[in-house]
Every structure is written in structure tokens, then in C-alpha cells.
From TrEMBL:
This is Beclin 1-associated autophagy-related key regulator. PANTHER family: BECLIN 1-ASSOCIATED AUTOPHAGY-RELATED KEY REGULATOR. InterPro entries: UV_resistance/autophagy_Atg14. GO terms for molecular function: phosphatidylinositol 3-kinase regulator activity; protein-membrane adaptor activity. It comes from Dreissena polymorpha (Zebra mussel). Keywords: Coiled coil.
Length: 369
């Protein structure tokens, strides 16, 4: 193991033993590693010398002591600091020039950036100005168009008002003409039904003896006498309507003509040969003929096109079969119903098979014409 020895100068060769004994430091056994060789072999050394740095390597490999090296390091550090301060003082002007040059370059860069920004702003301003000019021109065009549109709107409004006034006057005139036409049609229909084809309801009148009699049996007998069994059902044959001279049953059941045709077929002769002009069958034929003519004339006066075409002379033939007769009556009733509905007659007042009843309801309608 390398030993640590203390270097004593010539002035320290004579050290008093008492001073060493009285010293608070004294000698101590090394229990830590050696500061130089990093070994721990329990050498003897002076604690004060170690603290003061007065020790060297035992083999004299490193001749300088720790304290000398420390002093040398302090001197080098001081010299370094001196040279550093000197360098700073000598290069201060150069550093100032460099800093100023850097500041100038930075200002130049900032100026260049500002120029670029100003140029971009100028271009953007020019673009915005051009866009503003375009928008302004478009607004002027729109404004002029808007004025034209307002004038056109005003003219259209005035035209609509004039047309509305004209239409209103024409509507009033049309309503007046319609009322006049309705009155004229009513007048013509009234003349027709008064002088040419008068239609009236024939009511059965009781004698004084019947009025005085209150016997229920007689009343039932009278009702039974006014009821007939036709084609499997009982019908009331008391009410009648007269058109010109012939009369037609109110119920619209023209069985008398059918009976007349059936008898003619059984006897092998025509209905005209077996029946007199005053017979019930011929009366029905005459009444239906007058009715057909009156319906056609009324439709012509009212300017209504009938759905079924029917000839005036269709009921003038006395040799019509029952099937032909039923078809002719059905067409006549259909035309009458169409005529009633065209004039706005209430459907509840109409009976589909009551021929003259429907005509009377039509003639008494307030909105006729």
C-alpha cells in the first residue's frame, strides 16, 4: 500500500511534542479510502495536513501537492477571468457593431415584410374597390330595374282595377240580363202552360150525401172503389192531373193502356178498333203526347238539352206494345227529371214516376228560368 506522508518545511522540523499532544486533531487511523489512490489499507496520516492539502503521492508520480495544484487552479481561473474580461472589454465595440448590424438587418427584414404587407393590402384594396364598383353598378342596374318593375306593377295594378271594375259592371249587367231572361222565360212558359198546354190537378169532390155520411163502412168502401190491383200490387187511382183535356193518373201507373193492349191482343184486333176515342187508354195516350210536346217546348225555352231524344208523335201510334210503351214513358220521365234538376229543384219534391206532378213542381219553382 502506498503511504501518505506529510511534507514539512524547514521551519516546521522542530515541532514540540506537547503541541502535538495538546492539538485537538492529533493522529488518527484512516478508516476511509485514500484521497489519492482510492485505497483503504489503514495508513497513518496527519488530519491537519490532509485538511490543508499538504500531501503528495507516495511514489512521487505526481510531484505537486494538492494545495499547490489548488493554488495553480485558482491562479489559472483568475488569469482566465482576467483574459475573459479583457476580451470582453476589447471586443465590446465589435460586439456593439455586430448587434447594431443585426438590428439593422432585422429592421430591413421588417421593412421588407411591411412593404410586402402594404403591397398585399394595396392589391386587396384594389380588388375590394373593383368588387365594390361592380356591386355598385349591379345595384344601380337593379335599382333601375326595380323602378321599372314598380312602374310595371303600378300599371298592372291599375289594369287589374280597371278589369275588375269592367268585370263587376259586366257581372251586374249579366245578372240584370239573367233576371230579364228569367222573367222572359217565365212569361213564355206561363203563356205556354196557360194557353197551349194547361196543366192542373183534378181533385175528387164528394157529394153532399157523402159529406153528410160518417159511416166508416161507407168510407172504406169508397177508398176501396178508388183502389185497383195492377200487376200484383194495389195502387190508389183517385188523384189525377189534366193537361189540355186528357187526364193522367197522379201515381204514374198507366195500367189502363196496358189493359187495352192486352184486350186487343186477346180479341185479335187492334186497340184502335176496340177502343173508342173517349176510352181510358186513348186518354192516357193523348195526355202523354201533350206532355211530351210541352216538355220539349219548355226545354227549348230554358235552353236545356234533354238526355233522351223523343219524337212528338211517339205516343200517337195506337199499336204500341207494352214494352215500347214502357220505354217511351221511361224516356219521358227521365227528360222531366233532368229538366227539374237543371233548374235546381229540391229532390225531395220530385217523384220519379209521377209525370205531371213533377211538371207542376217545375212550373211553381221560384228559380225557374
Amino acid at each position: 500500500m502506498e503511504e501518505i506522508s506529510c511534507l514539512v518545511s524547514e521551519n516546521q522540523l522542530e515541532i514540540d511534542l506537547n503541541e502535538l499532544i495538546e492539538s485537538s486533531v492529533g493522529l488518527s487511523v484512516a478508516v476511509e479510502r485514500c484521497p489519492l489512490c482510492s485505497e483503504a489499507k489503514r495508513p497513518f496520516y496527519c488530519q491537519r495536513c490532509v485538511n490543508e492539502g499538504q500531501f503528495i503521492h507516495s511514489y512521487a508520480t505526481y510531484p505537486d501537492s494538492y494545495s499547490a495544484k489548488h493554488n495553480k487552479w485558482d491562479q489559472s481561473k483568475t488569469t482566465r477571468d482576467h483574459f475573459l474580461e479583457r476580451f470582453k472589454s476589447e471586443t465590446a465595440s465589435l460586439q456593439r457593431r455586430i448587434d447594431k448590424r443585426n438590428a439593422i438587418d432585422e429592421c430591413r427584414r421588417n421593412i421588407e415584410l411591411l412593404k410586402q404587407s402594404i403591397e398585399a393590402s394595396r392589391k386587396l384594396t384594389l380588388q375590394n374597390k373593383a368588387s365594390h364598383d361592380n356591386i355598385r353598378r349591379e345595384n344601380l342596374v337593379h335599382y333601375s330595374k326595380g323602378k321599372k318593375h314598380q312602374e310595371k306593377k303600378k300599371r298592372i295594378k291599375e289594369y287589374i282595377e280597371r278589369v275588375s271594375e269592367t268585370i263587376h259592371r259586366k257581372k251586374e249587367k249579366l245578372a240584370q240580363k239573367c233576371n230579364e231572361l228569367m222573367a222572359l222565360r217565365k212569361s213564355h212558359i206561363a203563356d205556354l202552360t196557360t194557353f197551349i198546354f194547361p196543366v192542373i190537378e183534378v181533385k175528387s169532390e164528394r157529394t153532399s150525401q157523402e159529406m153528410a155520411t160518417s159511416d166508416d163502412v161507407l168510407q172504406e168502401l169508397q177508398d176501396a172503389s178508388q183502389t185497383a190491383y195492377v200487376h200484383g200490387r194495389w195502387i190508389n187511382a183517385s188523384g189525377q192531373y189534366r193537361i189540355v183535356a186528357p187526364t193522367l193518373p197522379a201515381h204514374g201507373e198507366y195500367s189502363q193502356y196496358k189493359i187495352m193492349v192486352a184486350r186487343a191482343a186477346e180479341d185479335g184486333a187492334t186497340a184502335a178498333g176496340l177502343s173508342s176515342p173517349q176510352s181510358a187508354g186513348n186518354t192516357i195516350i193523348a195526355g202523354l203526347c201533350y206532355t211530351s210536346q210541352s216538355v220539349a217546348v219548355i226545354a227549348h225555352i230554358l235552353n236545356v238539352c234533354l238526355p233522351k231524344k223523343q219524337c212528338y208523335s211517339e205516343f200517337c201510334y195506337c199499336n204500341l206494345s207494352e214494352k215500347q210503351f214502357n220505354k217511351a214513358v221511361a224516356r219521358l220521365n227521365q227528360n222531366i227529371l233532368y229538366l227539374c234538376f237543371s233548374q235546381g229543384l229540391d229532390p225531395e219534391r220530385i217523384e220519379p214516376k209521377h209525370t205531371l206532378h213533377n211538371i207542376l213542381e217545375l212550373l211553381t219553382h221560384t228559380q225557374l228560368g
